[in-house]
Amino acid sequence: MKNVSPLCHTPPMGWNSWNTFSWNINADLIKSSADKMIETGLAEAGYEYIVIDDCWSEKQRVNGRLVPDHEKFPDGIKSVADYVHSKGLKFGIYSCAGTHTCAGYPGSFEHEFEDAETFAEWGVDYLKYDYCYKPETADGANLYKRMGMALRNCGRDIVFSACNWGKDDVHSWIRESGANLFRSTGDIQDNWESVKRIALSQIGKECCSGVYCHNDMDMLVVGMHGNSDNEWIADVVGGCTDTEYKTHFALWAIMNSPLMIGCDIRKMSDETKEILTNKDIIAINQDIECRGPYCIKQWNNPENVFALIKPLSGGDYAIGMFNFGDKTNEMSLQFFDIGLPYTSGRGLEIYDCCKHETIGIFTERLCVQIPSHDCMMYRAKVVKA
Ligand code: GAL
Q: Does 82 participate in catalysis according to the annotation?
C-alpha cells in the first residue's frame, strides 16, 4: 500500500486569476504572475499555488478531452505548468462538477476520471471544482465524491478545492469526498460589506474546518482597490481601504481560511505587500493544529465589536479584535472568559502582530480602542504575573 503524506495539512496559500482577470487570462499573465510571486517575496512568505480559474479551455471537447484555448494558451497548459514549476511553485486549474463551468465552458460531469488524468498529464497540482450546471437529478455530494476519487487515483498529488458556495449543507458531507478545501459562501466582492458578510456568516462554523479539509471563505480581495475586469467583483470604484484590507486578511487568517490572493500581484502597492506578507499573521493561519477560533463579543456593543481567540500549538493563543462599526470602539477582553482567571496568578504577554513587538504583560483583561473597520492581531503567551 502506498504511504503518502497527505495534502494540505494547513490551509493552502497562493494566487488565483479570477478576482482581477476573470475571462481575460493567457499564458503570459500566468507566467508573469509566477515571476512576481518570487520577486515580491510572496513565495518566501508561504504563497505557493498559481491557479488559473474559469475560461481557460476551448468551448468543445476534442475526442472527449478538454483542450486549452489556443489563443490564450498557444503552447498548451503543460508548458505553463512547467514554467510555474521551474520557479519552484505549484500549478492549479479549474473545472466544474456540472456539464458546463459557470462561464459556459465544458464541465467535468461524467468526464471526471478522464479529466483527472488529463490534469495529471499536464502537471496540475491543484483543482478548483465549481458547481454550476449540475444536472438536477444528480446528487451534489456524489459528484464531489467522484472527482475526489478520480483525483486520488490519477497518479499525481492534486489538491482538491471544492467550490459549491456553501450550498446543500456542504459542511456536513464535504470532508468525506476527499476535498482539501471547500467554499462555504457565495462569491466575494471588492467592498467592505462583502468582506463583513462573509466573515460573519462563518463565525460559529469553525468546527467544520480542520486539518486536510479547510473552510474556504473565497479568494482575497486585498489590494484590488476596485481594479478588476469583472465589474460585479469590482462593484464600487475604489474597492476597500487599506485598513479594511488589513482586517479582511486578519479575519481570513485567524478563521483558518485558505489565503488565495486575488489582486494583480504584478502591480501591488507597498501597503498591499505588507498586509499579504505579514509573517506573524500568516503563522497564525498556518498553525499546525488548525484549531478554529471562538468568538467573544463585546458585551455592550455585540453587533460591532468582537474578539476571535484561537489556541495555537505550543501553548500560545492568537487573539484578533475586530471593530465592524463606523466609529472607534472599545474591546475589553476579560481573561476569565478565555480560561485565565485572576486567581491563577498568570497573565498574558501580548505581542502585536502588526507592529511586530511585545506590548507588555496584562492581567485580568486587555482593553483597546479599535478604529472603525480596523483590527488588532495579537499573539499571547501565558506567563506568571
Ligand atoms: C463561481 C466561483 C468563482 C469563480 C467563477 C468562475 O462559481 O464561485 O470563484 O470560479 O465561478 O466562473
A: no
The three grid cell numbers given for residue 161, joined into one nine-digit string: 478545492
Our measurement of the distance from residue 346's CA atom to the centroid of its chain's CA atoms, rounded to an integer in Å, reads 35
Assigned C-alpha cell, 60: 468543445
54 lines ligand 1 (CB under 6 A): yes
Tell which CATH classification among 1.10.1740.10, 3.20.20.70, 3.30.70.100, 3.30.930.10 matches the domain 13-285: 3.20.20.70
Q: Are 92 and 49 in contact (CB under 8 A)?
A: yes
Alpha carbon nearest to ligand 1 atom 6, residue: 54
Rounded CA separation 179/171 (Å): 11
130 within ligand 1 shell (Cβ under 6 A)? yes
Reduce the DSSP state of residue 318 to 3 states and report it: strand
- Per residue in 152-209, pLDDT (tens digit) is 999 999 999 999 999 999 999 999 999 999 999 999 999 999 999 999 999 999 888 9
Cα-to-centroid distance, 187 and ligand 1 (Å):
7
Q: Which atom of ligand 1 is nearest to the CA of 186?
A: 8
Reported as a single tens digit per residue, the pLDDT across 223-235 is 999 999 999 999 8
Distance CA 209, CA 203 (A): 11
Every domain of the chain and the residues it spans:
13-285, 294-384
* 210 CB-near residues (< 8 Å, 6+ apart): 290, 291, 292
Establish whether residue 168 lines the binding site of ligand 1, counting it when its CB lies within 6 angstroms of any ligand atom.
Answer: no
> Does ligand 1 lie within 6 Å of residue 112's CB atom?
no
Entry pTM: 0.97
Catalytic hit among 35, 157, 187, 352:
187
Q: How far apart are CA 141 and CA 296, in angstroms?
A: 33
User: Which CATH number describes the domain made up of 294-384?
Assistant: 2.60.40.1180
Question: Per-residue DSSP letters for 254-296?
Answer: HTT--EEE-S-GGG--HHHHHHHT-HHHHHHHT-TT-PPPEEE
Q: Please tell me if the CB atom of residue 186 comes closer than 6 angstroms to any atom of ligand 1.
A: no
75 is catalytic: no
CA dihedral 71, 72, 74, 80 (to 10 degrees): 180
Q: Hey, which residues does 106 pair with through a beta bridge?
A: 100
Which residue bears the cell 456568516?
Answer: 201
Ligand 1, atom 3, lies closest to the CA of 187
